[in-house]
Design goal:
By secondary structure, the protein is an all-alpha fold. It is 76% helix and 0% strand. This is EcsC family protein.
């Protein structure tokens, strides 16, 4: 019953995502993006997106090997042992019910949203150094959360295949809602044949991912524009913009990651 209920929730979430209708501005924006990037040679575009992919890979591996990530994974296991004392490693978590695993993942989701809200607020209140570091911090915070969400559902994120899947989840989750439906279907197809994930030579990122840095640029401009609007010496409007934006993005990414790993675990169990 629990898995059926979760699948119904996922279906409602996917239908809501797939039924999103573009407004006129988004249609114009998509047309402009296509026309603008069509002017660049393919070699330059490939080199550019390869650099972004390498940045994601480096950030992922760095985070996965930090003490804080190891400790967070151990805390997940400790909590899981209150349900089943025989759990020894991350893969053993898959013996637990979907409700218990979702509870473990929800803890990581909640922490990520608090961290993202706080980090965005600090960025809004800080100087240009913090603004410059904002995007790398957003990437690091949300990649870390996706790693922990995947671990909460019993997937070993040190595995190279799982690493690539997690990066694809990050990319899909950071896309605008109008593009997430297609990304979701693509992810579902890819995990049916895990070996094909490693053989797939396509880049992780493409022109669609640039929606995120462009939105980041607009956020930065708003923060700078309202920085002089002080209330008792604090730029409250800038703080609010930074906190609200980062929280919204964290919510979007972690919701996507949680739904994906829920769906994947249920499908894996049904195929056994």
């Amino acid at each position: 019953m629990g898995e059926e209920r979760v699948l119904r929730e996922i279906d409602r979430w996917v239908n809501e995502m797939s039924s999103y209708e573009l407004n006129d501005f988004e249609k114009l924006y998509d047309e402009w993006m296509i026309q603008y990037f069509s002017k660049f040679p393919e070699s330059i575009k490939k080199s550019f997106f390869e650099s972004i992919d390498q940045w994601f890979l480096f950030t992922y591996t760095f985070l996965q090997n930090t003490n804080s990530q190891t400790e967070a994974t151990q805390r997940i296991l400790q909590i899981a042992r209150t349900y089943d004392e025989n759990i020894e490693r991350i893969e053993d978590l898959q013996e637990l019910s979907i409700e218990k695993l979702t509870y473990l993942a929800d803890q990581q989701v909640a922490k990520n949203r608090v961290y993202s809200f706080a980090q965005g607020g600090i960025t809004g209140a800080g100087g240009f150094l913090l603004l410059a570091a904002d995007l790398p911090l957003i990437v690091a915070l949300n990649l870390r959360s996706i790693q922990l969400i995947g671990s909460s559902f019993g997937y070993n994120l040190n595995n190279p295949i799982e690493m690539l899947i997690a990066l694809k989840v990050f990319h899909a989750g950071s896309l605008p809602k109008r593009l997430q439906g297609a990304a979701w279907e693509d992810l579902k197809e890819q995990v049916k044949e895990l070996e094909s994930v490693m053989k797939n030579k396509d880049l992780l990122t493409d022109e669609t991912w640039l929606n995120q840095p462009i939105r980041q640029l607009f956020k930065t401009l708003f923060i700078v524009g309202f920085r002089k609007k002080l209330f008792q010496g604090i730029p409250l409007v800038s703080v609010g913009i930074g906190a609200a934006y980062n929280y919204k993005l964290a919510k979007q990414l972690t919701d996507f990651a949680k739904r994906f790993y829920q769906y994947r675990l249920i499908q894996d169990r049904q195929s056994q």
